[in-house]
Specification:
The complex is a heterodimer of chains A (139) and B (491).
Chain A: E1 2-8, E2 13-20, H1 25-45, E3 57-63, E4 67-73, E5 79-85, H2 93-112, H3 125-138
Antiparallel strand pairs in A: 1-2, 1-5, 3-4, 4-5
Helix pairs in contact in A: 2-3
Chain B: H1 4-18, E1 27-29, H2 32-45, H3 55-64, H4 69-79, H5 81-84, H6 89-103, E2 143-145, H7 223-233, H8 263-276, E3 284-285, H9 286-294, H10 300-310, E4 317-318, H11 320-334, H12 349-356, H13 363-367, H14 377-387, H15 393-402, H16 406-414, H17 422-444, H18 453-461, H19 476-490
Antiparallel strand pairs in B: 1-2, 3-4
Helix pairs in contact in B: 1-2, 3-7, 4-6, 8-11, 10-11, 11-12, 12-17, 14-17, 15-17, 18-19
Classes of the chains: A alpha+beta (139), B mainly alpha (491).
Chain lengths: 139, 491
């Protein structure tokens, strides 16, 4: 049971939302949206050291009783947020990292497409396939 | 002669003709008898009035006119069917008129059909009660517009090589018009051949489309043949691309594969590429390509998908094989084909490069980067070396072990391109494709977590030639915007 969202700067509107299963979607949207605050907080916390090494992977944003939220931000301030079921303890940190990395890679592929305007919602089929396969893997 | 249905059939013909995608065209006056005769022939050749004529039945009809094959070729060309790729009513009528002209001894030109002409004569047609018609009466008649192909991209030609072969499978595919096709015509392959020998039967199926094959037996002159053919050949095609005929090599046997690029198409694409980018070894940047493909008037999401399919190394630029693939997909889409989910094998860059046997990759590749993405050189280098050869498979295994090294790239550069027989290329292409996909994943396996702004800045200042050592922290997209962010932060 997971959901993933990509938010874009600076207004933080979602570029891409996908959740499995598709019911309770609204709850995931809400969760992800509120977690943006945590993301921003983390970014600004690193703000002083921005020039130096900055972790793209933000790690566990906050755990709730039901699920955990992970965050990832790119250098261009595009935020990836992922919600994972708490019961899914088999999911280790490394795997989350690799998933974010894959997301980031696919996102850059989309950016390479000259027909894609940054800020548009993402409709790429390749991206969909990648996200689906990733989520299937975990569930 | 029946006068009654002339008006109705004439109206049908004119309406069908004008629904074509044409902005301008010829006005072709037909007399009454001509009109009636033509519409009768047309309706015999195609099952529904609004569709275009079945290629094979058209072929038989033309052959029945007893004109030499060259003349028939010429007629096909002049009537515009070759250009638009199918026999719509307009093309068919013009062709008939040209046949009449040729039979009367006039040259095959558009001008000759503007005159009064006797009706074309077709020998031994099944339903033909009258073999010959007398001269027509007046010139009054229905004028209808001949839709010409508007889009330049649709105007591909067929290679009518003597050794071309076509095959047909006995079960006919049902008639189904392409869903998003801009015109109401069904696309019929120009699958007739004039006196060519055909052999064999081959069957293939593609995933999103049905390929129709036709077997034409060695054409005997018996009327029984002609009688049988219209019945057999009148079914129209589902999705076969009308100009997708590959030349028959001695070693390989291509059938109607819409995702296969013919020689003529390839030449056309290469010329288009040249118009955008004179250096064939270099590539077209994304914005240039975007402007170019936007002219095709396909919707942006589809163009986006086409780009996704064809830009295999995802570098935001199109090399020649990528461009050919993209162009081909655009052409296919404009002809009503659904875009595939993944790039067909025959459109892979490695395959196209191997097929073209052109020495596309050498030092020029590394020197001719367009510096739109300064940070992307790394992955671009890598993908260039990936793409550089279907032939250099052994080098690829070295690639796997060594990672990105400059000396290895130098090795590639110095390796000359070997032309390998096509069968081997087929094999190497497959493995190369798999390897390149695996290889593509490799540069991504580096951790992005330590990307820093200085690294990206360093990247941006590097010269176009391959940098000595890829920095572990490099990430393509981050370096795109880092400069901007860095400037913002320093303000």
């Amino acid at each position: 049971v997971r959901a993933g969202v990509i938010y874009s700067p600076p207004q933080n509107y979602p570029l891409y939302i996908r959740s499995i299963p598709t019911e309770n979607e609204l709850k995931f949207h809400y969760t992800v949206h509120t977690s943006l605050d945590v993301v921003d907080e983390k970014i600004s916390a690193m703000g002083k050291a921005l020039v130096d090494q900055r972790e793209l992977y933000l790690g566990l944003l906050y755990p709730t009783e039901d699920y955990k939220v992970y965050g990832y931000v790119t250098n261009s301030r595009v935020k990836f947020v992922m919600v994972v079921d708490s019961s899914n303890t088999a999911l280790r940190d490394n795997e989350i990292r690799s998933m974010f990395r894959k997301l980031h890679n696919s996102y850059t592929d989309i950016m390479c497409n000259p027909f894609y305007n940054p800020g548009d919602r993402i409709h790429s089929r390749a991206f969909d396939n990648m996200v689906n396969s990733m989520m299937m893997q975990v569930c | 002669m029946e006068q009654g249905p002339v008006g109705g059939s004439a109206a049908a013909a004119s309406s069908a003709a004008t629904t074509g995608t044409g902005s301008g065209g010829l006005l072709l006056p037909l007399s009454e008898s001509e009109q009636q005769r033509y519409s009768e022939l047309f309706s015999r050749c195609c099952p529904t009035p609004e569709a275009a004529a079945g290629g094979s039945s058209v072929g038989e009809l033309f052959r029945a006119s007893q004109l030499p094959p060259d003349t028939l070729h010429q007629i096909t060309e002049v009537c515009g069917a070759k250009r638009v790729g199918y026999f719509g009513p307009a093309q068919f009528y013009i062709a008939l008129k040209l046949i009449a002209a040729a039979q009367s001894g006039f040259p095959v030109r558009i001008e000759s059909i503007k005159n009064e002409l006797p009706l074309p004569r077709f020998i031994a047609l099944k339903n033909d009660s009258e073999v010959r018609y007398g001269t027509p009466a007046e010139l009054h008649g229905v004028k209808f517009q001949v839709p010409h192909a508007t889009l330049e991209k649709n105007s591909y030609k067929r290679t009518d090589e003597g050794d071309k072969q076509e095959t047909k499978s006995p079960p006919m595919s049902p008639i189904c018009s392409p869903p998003a096709s801009p015109s109401t015509y069904q696309r019929i392959p120009l699958s007739y051949g004039y006196g060519k020998s055909r052999s064999g039967l081959e069957q293939q199926h593609g995933a999103p489309y049905e390929v129709r094959h036709s077997t034409h037996q060695q054409d005997g002159t018996s009327s029984g043949n002609y009688g049988a053919k219209p019945a057999l050949g009148c079914s129209t095609l589902n999705r076969s691309l009308s100009v997708e005929r590959e030349q028959q090599d001695s070693s390989t046997h291509y059938s109607d594969d819409p995702w296969r690029i013919t020689e003529e198409q390839r030449d056309y694409y290469v010329n288009q590429f040249r118009s955008l980018q004179p250096d064939l070894n270099s590539f077209i940047s994304g914005s240039v390509a975007k402007n170019f493909f936007t002219k095709s008037k396909l919707p942006i999401p589809e163009l986006s998908h086409i780009w996704e399919l064809s830009d295999v190394d995802c570098d935001g630029a199109l090399t020649l094989p990528e461009f050919c693939a993209a162009f081909h997909l655009v052409v296919a889409r404009k002809n009503g084909y659904q875009l595939p989910e993944t790039l067909p094998e025959t459109l892979l860059p490695e395959y196209l490069q191997a097929a073209s046997l052109k020495p596309l990759h050498d030092c020029a590749l590394f020197d001719s980067y367009s510096e739109t993405l300064p940070g992307s050189q790394q992955t671009r280098d890598f993908s260039r070396t990936e793409k550089t050869s279907a032939e250099e498979v052994p080098d690829k295994s070295a690639l796997l072990q060594d990672g990105k090294k400059d000396d290895k790239q130098a090795l590639k550069v110095s390796t000359s391109l070997k032309t390998i027989p096509k069968e081997f290329q087929h094999l190497t292409v497959k493995t190369a494709a798999q390897e390149s996909n695996a290889l593509k994943a490799r540069p991504r396996s580096r951790s992005y977590s330590s990307t820093s702004i200085e690294d990206a800045m360093k990247k941006g200042e590097e010269p176009p030639t391959p940098p000595p050592r890829p920095q572990k922290s490099h990430s393509r997209a981050s370096s795109l915007d880092l400069n901007k962010i860095f400037q913002q932060n320093t303000q």
